[in-house]
Design brief:
With 473 residues, the chain is α/β, with parallel strands linked by helices. The chain has a domain of 221 residues: Rossmann fold (3-Layer(aba) Sandwich), CATH 3.40.50. The protein is 46% helix and 15% strand. The chain is built from 19 helices and 15 strands. The chain has a six-stranded mixed beta sheet with strand order 3-4-14-9-10-13. The chain has a five-stranded parallel beta sheet with strand order 8-5-6-7-15, sandwiched between helices. Strands 1-2 form a two-stranded antiparallel ribbon. Strand 5, helix 6 and strand 6 form a beta-alpha-beta unit. Helix 5 crosses helix 10. The model has no long low-confidence stretch (mean pLDDT 97). The protein binds pyridoxal-5'-phosphate (PLP) and the ligand N[C@@H](CCOP(=O)(O)O)C(=O)O. The ligand N[C@@H](CCOP(=O)(O)O)C(=O)O binds next to helix 6. Pfam families: PALP, THR4_C, Thr_synth_N. One of its GO terms (molecular function) is pyridoxal phosphate binding. It comes from Azospirillum griseum. Its cofactor is pyridoxal 5'-phosphate. One of its GO terms (biological process) is threonine biosynthetic process.
Length: 473
């Protein structure tokens, strides 16, 4: 298995190098040269298997032999042993045709744990084998940060720097990150938005001298391995509901487009996915794209679903690569235009190709709160605000007949409601409690550094802290 960059001008890499590379050297994102194929029999054979075994079978073709199967099985099994539900990602039925796929049973209560618990262990395995050390730089709107910190804390070969937009995460999210006091963990509260944080991460990777001196790696979904690990739960959910003998639709609350791109990957591998509904909050650049074929930037506004307060959806580039027939130059031209002028458009044929798979819906603040309230009142199920965007978007797609009503609809429950207690209580009257292992979160000491939105300042901070950590190690 080889990986190519969406901009077409970076070296083709195997799995281990892709895991460590993060952003491609031409500024693009790595994708598989071709998708592994699962026949109907291969998919049927997954029925009844535990999550970790399905995970091994689905991910093994992506490794291209880089990690021995037994060693990989041990890593995967260990990663999912940290989840507090035996099914790892259980399905809960909400109504006759709608399920939620609970992805928040990992240590930091969001879907990011599913991939990052694995990634932390994969980094360890590969770095120990190579005798190397990396500096991870990451951007978070709230959930990737804590999941990555939890996965990388105290690992010997890793320093991790996580930037979050100051004052724009929930308090629980911030404390989950900043109360980890391990010497290899560095939290930055950036004076800016998530998009600014992500731009700085890409800026650090695109500075080749800095990237090479620091040995940069990524934990955001620019890292291919994140997508690979997220593909798995689309298989487990679809198989549990009757695939390959029945089609399944998914609705994904979306920000950076990584999670729904993983669903696209599962479909490309042969999973019978009928439709992928993208749920956006008021930061609705993706919903507007699917309505018009034009990607047009707009200022980010804070919402009740802060992890989705994103306007520049990094992984959309991976879809664009396919919409533009895998022409790296065309992707580069579109994204250069987006950077310079704030927009680009696809042709009607390319939009039609996208709409044969995707639908997009914007759910505003009132719709989010109303969905939390009515779901609680009607089913006794407490949604987090991100998942509520998904539930409302699924409903909108059904109302517009964009999905076949006979097809089961699975909405991805991307975070535990206790991560957003204020919004959930405001909507439902019920304040969700943190699980016992986080019950002292509000008393824990916090450590973080405030930095301006300036690449040179952030680079100097990362270099100085990483040097100090290495000297101390
Ligand atoms: C709770 C939650 N829901 C949804 C999303 C959106 O996922 P994606 O960025 O993969 O589109 C995020 C963050 O990205 C998140 O943290
Ligand atoms: N919502 C995310 C944003 C970053 O997304 P990623 O999937 O690229 O890591 C977060 O919680 O940080």
């Amino acid at each position: 298995m080889q990986y190519v960059s969406t901009r077409g001008a970076a070296p083709v890499l195997g799995f281990e190098d892709v895991l460590l590379a993060g952003l491609a050297r031409d500024g693009g994102l790595y994708v598989p040269q071709s998708w592994p194929q699962f026949s109907a029999d291969d998919i049927r054979a997954l029925r009844g298997l535990p999550y970790s075994e399905i995970a091994v079978r689905v991910m093994l073709p992506f490794l291209g032999g880089a990690i021995d199967e037994d060693a990989f099985r041990a890593i995967v099994t260990d990663a999912y042993a940290s989840f507090d539900h035996s099914a790892v990602t259980p399905l809960i039925q909400l109504d006759q045709t709608t399920w939620v796929l609970e992805l928040f049973h990992g240590p930091t209560l969001a879907f990011k744990d599913v991939a990052l618990q694995l990634l932390g262990r994969l980094f360890d395995h590969v770095l120990a084998k190579r005798g190397e050390r990396v500096t991870i730089v990451g951007a978070t709107s709230g959930d990737t940060g804590s999941a990555a910190i939890e996965a990388c804390r105290d690992r010997q070969n890793v320093d991790i720097f996580i930037m979050h937009p100051k004052g724009r995460t929930s308090e629980v999210q911030r404390r989950q990150m900043t109360s980890v006091l391990s010497s290899n963990v560095h939290n930055i509260a950036l004076d800016g938005t998530f998009d600014d944080c992500q731009d700085l991460v890409k800026g650090m990777f695109n500075d080749t001298a800095f990237r090479d001196t620091m040995g940069l790696s990524a934990v955001n979904s620019i890292n291919w391995a994140r997508i690979m690990a997220q593909i798995v739960y689309y298989f487990t959910a679809a198989v549990a509901l009757g695939a390959p003998d029945r089609k399944i639709a998914f609705t994904v609350p979306t920000g950076n487009f990584g999670n729904v791109y993983a669903a696209y990957g599962a479909r490309a591998m042969g999973l019978p996915i009928d439709k992928l509904v993208v749920g956006s909050n008021s930061n609705d650049i993706l919903a507007r794209f699917f309505a018009s074929g034009t990607m047009a930037a707009a200022p980010v506004v804070p919402t009740f679903s802060p992890s989705m307060d994103i306007q520049i959806s990094s992984n959309f580039e991976r879809l664009l690569f396919d919409l533009l027939d895998r022409d790296g130059d065309a992707v580069t031209a579109a994204l250069n235009r987006f950077r310079a002028e704030g927009n680009f458009a696809v042709t009607d044929a390319q939009l039609a190709k996208a709409l044969s798979i995707f639908a997009g819906h914007r759910v505003g603040e009132d719709g989010t709160m109303e969905t939390v309230a009515t779901t609680w009142a009607n089913s006794g199920y407490l949604l987090d605000p991100h998942t509520a965007v998904g539930v409302a978007a699924a409903k909108a797609a059904k109302a517009k007949a964009e999905v076949d009503p006979s097809v089961p609809m699975v909405v991805l429950a991307t975070a535990h409601p206790a991560k957003f207690p204020d919004a959930v209580e405001k909507a439902s009257g019920r304040r969700p409690a943190l699980p016992p292992r986080l019950s002292d979160l509000y008393e824990r000491e916090e450590r973080l550094s405030d930095l301006p939105n300036d690449l040179a300042t952030v680079q100097a901070f990362v270099a100085a802290r990483a040097r100090a950590a290495q000297e101390a190690a």
